[in-house]
């Protein structure tokens, strides 16, 4: 593409979850020529959350799908451009940021990265083999397929417990496998899980292998204290063992921590001028819709000030 043919945006936003949609709302409302690049559904992981109870303004809670739809509608109201493509890399061309996808390249004066996270894998035999055949990372996506089944859930945080509670609407019973003897989840989720008659617990335990034929048939569970291994029949296993940031395409470009989370200051600025980060891909204390929205607004405002400093009118 010749230089004279480049289409240069004021701001490109990578990621259409709550952080990206909020950033897009702010930049487009500020009349900055903005492109939002999203790979998949707008809303990100929020779309797979059955009920969001802790986002202000919805006293009865709101489904992740509905909140995603409302945020997308509001962002697009001010004229933001969007494309549905996967970003493969980011580079610098002078002061311009070049964002490469499989289909094209885009250029911008400022870049806001809101790529979020993805579910961490267990890395045990059978996991990859049975994805979609009994192994799942999304209860709201797949729960209805396990009606009247006996299943396993792995994890001890908020995601594991909220998803397990949701799954009890469908399954006959489920066992939560946790490598420690106490849960990390918020107390209210623990109370709901402990009081649910369909939920059992296997403490100090890890999944060693997932077994089956065409679909999952059983799991091998190892007690981390005794070393004892037991095989349990099951029709499905849901894995919620943490998150990893979607930042591999940025390796070597900006400063990140050892886990791949982007390091920023209080203005959501990264180690490179004109590149900002917001939402779950950023190193921070709390990963929630409410914090992502706030950071999206901060990053957008910081990008606007950055462009003003470069003389954009």
Just name the CATH architecture of the largest domain: 3-Layer(bba) Sandwich
Mean pLDDT: 93
Overall geometry: elongated
Please give the largest β-sheet.
7 strands, mixed
What is the first-to-last residue Cα distance?
A: 27 Å
Q: According to CATH, what is the topology of the largest domain?
A: FAD/NAD(P)-binding domain
Share of residues in helices: 10-25%
Poorly predicted ranges: none
Overall number of structural domains: 2
| Beta fraction | 25-35%
* String of helices and strands: EHEHEEEEEEHEHEHEEEEEEEH
CATH level 4 superfamily of the largest domain: FAD/NAD(P)-binding domain
Number of helices: 6
Label this structure with key terms:
313 residues, seven-stranded mixed beta sheet, alpha/beta, FAD/NAD(P)-binding domain, five-stranded parallel beta sheet, 22% helix, elongated
Structure, explained:
- The protein is of the alpha/beta class.
- The chain has two domains: 3-119 and 243-309, FAD/NAD(P)-binding domain, CATH 3.50.50.60; 135-239, FAD/NAD(P)-binding domain (3-Layer(bba) Sandwich).
- It contains six helices and 17 strands.
- The protein has helices spanning 18-29, 64-76, 139-142, 158-167, 187-194, 289-309; strands at 8-14, 34-38, 81-84, 87-93, 96-101, 105-113, 117-119, 135-136, 150-154, 173-177, 199-202, 205-212, 216-223, 229-233, 236-239, 243-245, 275-277.
- Strands 1, 2, 3, 4, 5, 6 and 17 form a seven-stranded mixed sheet that branches. A five-stranded parallel sheet has the order 8-15-9-10-11, with helices on one face.
- β12 (205-212) and β13 form a beta hairpin.
- α1 (18-29) runs parallel beside α6 (289-309).
- The longest helix has 21 residues, at 289-309.
- The chain starts with 7 loop residues before the first strand and ends with a helix.
- The mean pLDDT is 93.
């Amino acid at each position: 593409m010749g230089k004279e043919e480049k289409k240069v945006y004021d701001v490109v936003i990578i990621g259409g979850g709550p952080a990206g949609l909020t950033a897009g709302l702010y930049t487009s409302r500020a009349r900055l020529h903005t492109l939002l690049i999203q790979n998949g559904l707008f809303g990100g992981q929020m779309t797979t959350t059955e009920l969001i109870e802790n986002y202000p303004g919805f006293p009865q809670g709101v489904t992740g799908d509905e909140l995603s739809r409302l945020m997308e509608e509001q962002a697009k109201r001010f004229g933001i451009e969007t494309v549905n493509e996967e970003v493969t890399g980011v580079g610098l061309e002078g002061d311009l940021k070049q964002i490469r996808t499989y289909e094209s390249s885009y250029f911008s004066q400022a870049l806001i990265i809101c790529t979020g996270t993805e579910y961490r894998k267990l890395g045990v035999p059978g996991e990859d083999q049975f994805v979609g055949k009994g192994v799942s990372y999304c209860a709201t996506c797949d729960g209805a397929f396990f009606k009247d089944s006996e299943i396993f859930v792995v994890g001890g945080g908020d995601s594991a417990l909220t998803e397990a509670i949701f799954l009890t609407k469908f399954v006959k019973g489920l066992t939560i496998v946790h490598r420690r003897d106490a849960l990390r989840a918020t107390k209210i989720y623990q109370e709901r899980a402990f009081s649910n008659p369909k939920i059992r617990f296997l403490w100090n335990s890890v999944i060693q292998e997932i077994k089956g034929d065409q679909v999952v048939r059983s799991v091998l569970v190892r007690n981390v204290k005794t070393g004892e291994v037991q095989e349990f029949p099951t029709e499905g296993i849901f894995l919620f063992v943490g998150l990893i940031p979607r930042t591999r395409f940025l390796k070597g470009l900006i400063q990140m921590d050892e886990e791949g989370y982007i390091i920023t200051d209080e203005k959501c600025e990264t180690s490179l001028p004109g590149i900002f980060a917001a939402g779950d891909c950023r190193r921070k204390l709390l990963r929630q819709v409410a914090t992502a929205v706030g950071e999206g607004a901060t990053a957008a405002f910081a990008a606007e000030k950055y462009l003003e400093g470069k003389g954009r009118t």
